Fold this sequence. Notes:
The chain is of the alpha/beta class. The chain has 4 domains: 7-20 and 405-482, no CATH class; 23-128, Rossmann fold; 133-307, no CATH class; 317-380, no CATH class. It is 26% helix and 26% strand. It is built from 12 helices and 29 strands. Strands 11-10-9-8-12-17-18-19 form an 8-stranded mixed beta sheet, with helices on both faces. Strands 1, 2, 21, 22, 23 and 28 form a 6-stranded antiparallel beta sheet that branches. A 4-stranded parallel beta sheet has the order 4-3-5-6. Strand 14 and strand 15 (227-231) form a beta hairpin. It is globular, with a radius of gyration of 22 Å. Residues 1-5 and 10-16 have low confidence and may be disordered.
Amino acid sequence: MRLTPLLIVPAFAFAGCLATPVQDSYAIVASKAVMDDPAWKAATVDVLTAKHPGAQVLVWEANPNEVKAELAKTQPSFTAFAVKPTQAGVSMTIALSNLCRALDDDPYVDTFWGVITGYDAESAKALSEAGPISIERALDCAGCDLTAFDKAWRYTEDHRGTMNFWERGVTDKVQDIPCDTDNTQGVLERLQKDNIQFMTTSGHATQRDWQMGYSGPNMAMVHKDGRLISIDTKKQPHPAGSTEPKVYFGTGNCLIGDVDKPDCMVLSWLKDGGARQFMGYTITTWFGAQGWGTQGLFVDTAGLTTANEAFHFTNTGIVEKIRSYGIPDMMDFRFTEIKSNGNFPVTPGLQRWAVDFAKSGKSAPEVQKALQERVGHLHDRDVVCFYGDPALDARIANGRWTVEQPKMDGEALVLTLHAKEGVRDGTVWVRLPGSWAYAPAVLKASESLGQPDLTLDNMIRFPNAKPVAGETYVVRIPGAVRKGK
């Protein structure tokens, strides 16, 4: 439901007030196959239940939609879907993406979700019991902002022979450092000696491999029996496992997030690479709104969002973009067939729109660009999977923002954000602790955050924020009533 009431007021207005912290709610949705297997149930449902006291447990047999009515009643803040690897992959991703947007009458995500699975029960347990990840060290292979981290390295397909390096308080800017044109040993050193906690990748990939070779021969990462193996340019294999808990974004990779069988790239990262959360495309990618959008939001507003929040905020932005096009059957589109040579979803309504747009006097390049944007957003909406506990607090340490736990002050829900050194102009998203209904009120936005353009029951978006370092922003939502049981 689209909502409009909130007040953004100076922090001093609440000095000394007595407020009660608001807890998030949690649901565990397990397949019957998981529940019927003692090892898998113990590794997932039992661990998550102990980790999140009071969590709702639901079971489905043939299709996750079987639990839709119960989820709609409770409107949990987070939902973990526990499945066996043979149940994961592209079809499950599309099903969950659509299910989690269909729990009320708006088209946006209603519960922040994540998939709990693994190469085996033991690796699924590692996801279930994962603790908070305070990200200080990063390995970037997709071109993100290194200065968001305490220490970060970059190797990418367009940086052969050069490594980028940043260390807060040591380097005054990102350094260009000569290195081998074969990045195998550099990547392994970052993984196994520097214990990086965040990793991004782009370049060629499938369910079987990741290649860093657009601009010439370079390393590749493959897997066997759930173990990661780095292959250098001389075709020599090197064990590539690492144990440091980390977040992995397959930002620009095709297929790397798909589970076509248990022995695949994403499940090998979860088992052998220390990944406790993983975002990746389950089909080929070409537009990249979900992957690059999630990476950009997470890094550029460092500390403001968790990895899972960045994923869902980005997806909500994609849905809102599709809605804004005003072509009804785009909102209703569902993937029913996945093609191996590329997926370009064009609805009848979108076809008619393109014809009319061309007839309006637009040039062929203008029509092509506008059509690509619409098809691209539709492509990305449902096909990127997020693996791991969705409630896991995995965020960038010492970032540009800090966020306090939401509180109730009388009948008002209060959200508090602190802007720190390095905050930047741009979009600011804030998650509410679950889904809320609240009465209309006069909106008084601070000049720095600006007017919100999306005030939903579980999140708020400020699209043109100009935060000031050192300021505290209090978002006060009067008359707030929590939805669900």
